Amino acid sequence: MADLSERTISADTVEACRRGDRDAFRAVYECYKDRVYSISLHFFHGDAAMASDVTQQVFLKLMTSLGQFRGDAELSTWLYRLVVNACLDVSRRRKSEALVEPDESRPERFVAAGSPEEDYARAEREHSVRCAIGALPPKFRVAVLLRYFEDLSYEQMAKALNCSMGTVASRLSRAHRALAARLKDVIDRRD
Amino acid sequence: MLTSHVSNRLAAYVDGEVTPSDVRTIERHLAECARCRTDHQQLRLAAATLKALPMVPVPDNIWPLIERGLREASPTVPPVRPRVWRWAAAGAMAVVIAVVAIGRWGTATRWEVRVLEGSPVVASRVLTDGGQVGAGDWIETDARARATIDVGAIGTVEIAPDSRVRVTATRANEHRLTLERGRIHAVISAPPRIFFVDTASATAVDLGCEYTLNADEAGDGVLRVTRGWVSFQTDGLESLVPAGAACATHRRVGPGLPYFEDATDSFRQAVNDFGFQKIASESLNTMLAEARARDTLTLWHLLTRVSEADRARVYDRMAALTAVPPAVSRESVLKLDPRTLQRWREELAWTW
User: Fold this and answer.
1) What is the pTM of this model?
2) Angstrom distance (rounded) from CA B81 to CA B129
3) Where in the sequence is the domain holding B333, given as residue range(s)?
4) Strand pairing partners for B156?
5) Of B198, B227, B256, which residue is a domain's last?
6) ipTM score here?
7) Is B51 close to A1, i.e. CB distance below 8 A?
8) Do residues B215 and B117 both lie within one domain?
9) Is residue B126 part of a domain?
10) What is the pLDDT of residues B257-308, one digit of tens each?
11) Could you give the angle at which helices A154-161 and A75-93 cross, rounded to 10 degrees?
12) What residues of chain B, 100 to 159, have a C-beta less than 8 Å from chain A?
């Protein structure tokens, strides 16, 4: 999967944002909106309202603080950091959210091809993955999403998470174990 | 000699984030240690499962809220100029509609139509703003007109200029359009096989997706999928088209082989030639020579469309490009055993 850094927002666009050019803001938003929203949605195990709140926060923060962006890093790296901070902040404010199970009645997206049975199985698998991610501690959860949903390298993750690559590796390793255990049934069915 | 267990480094190994020296150490260990092999297999499959998480379009109501926040934060900044609709915005709107209305989707019998540009003709009336359509109504756009249909509560379809579209069915289990000519862009968020678009030579069956379909009156056209999957089919012939792939359809032939649009030019040309230009052997040779692992999408579809002798060549090439699952035997594939083909496709789909 492509990551945000592959999307190109030119230095001119960033500069136009600094000058308050609303069309430039919109261009940045159009470029990154779905990824920011999707990371948030998966982080909050499918809670669309929470993901919408975080997406607003991230872009408002991005737009209103672009003056602080030094330009010596990728805009995407900075954006990832804002996403991480917003997800973790909201998560901290709602400490109980980690205990909230995904809404069982929430409609799953169906993205598979095949018989209705296959489609159902695939939707169920997606649901299991979302539940497994939702059960991870927030710092592990966001690391997993950056790595596997956004396909960031450990180096890019270290910048976004503001930690060392060793910490990234450690978090992912522990997250991996927890996920493999929780996804055992799903994995066994694939074997 | 068995080295100490490598479990703590397996995640980084699976992620390709270890040094070449560590790779050698880990692989030596895995060759000897069943416990770490099991761990490795579980980690690898967990990673593959996670990578299948879908991208979800942002709801359409987020930008106005951000814009309002920006105005409050910086009241001197002028409001954004009105902008024309974009495909992506239409997609986001589809998801909002689907999410808000899920549970009662399918109950609508008339669908809203909105004018995006110009003056489309809807149900024999020139539309300047908005209206409704029901089964049997036509929507026609000229070179300067565009319109969008809210397909019940499951998504939207934008109708491009110079297009003619008929609403064929608005039933709960069947939302169906006919694209007589022109181009549409559909963004659907619903269970599979609820939304259909007929052209003169093939039917696009939504499996939860976003796609563009163009066609002419004779039945020539192309389907391009940007999210999810579409089944492109006609009597007895089906092409499964995932995101990033396209599939042409031709008059009196139906859908051809699906192909990824980032395949080589010669591969894509061979796909087109194979289906429609009657120089099958040459184009088959090209496809087999040029195929990448990802192009097993095309090769898998080829299995049922070639002679038995050529099928063996296709199988062998696929086996060289990707690991064949233990449950998929060469013999069963050559016999076109449906369960085997389905099983293989499901495994291959993780790489598509």
Assistant:
1) 0.49
2) 19
3) 273-352
4) B150, B187
5) B256
6) 0.79
7) yes
8) yes
9) yes
10) 999 999 999 999 999 888 666 567 889 999 999 999 999 999 999 999 888 8
11) 60
12) 102-103
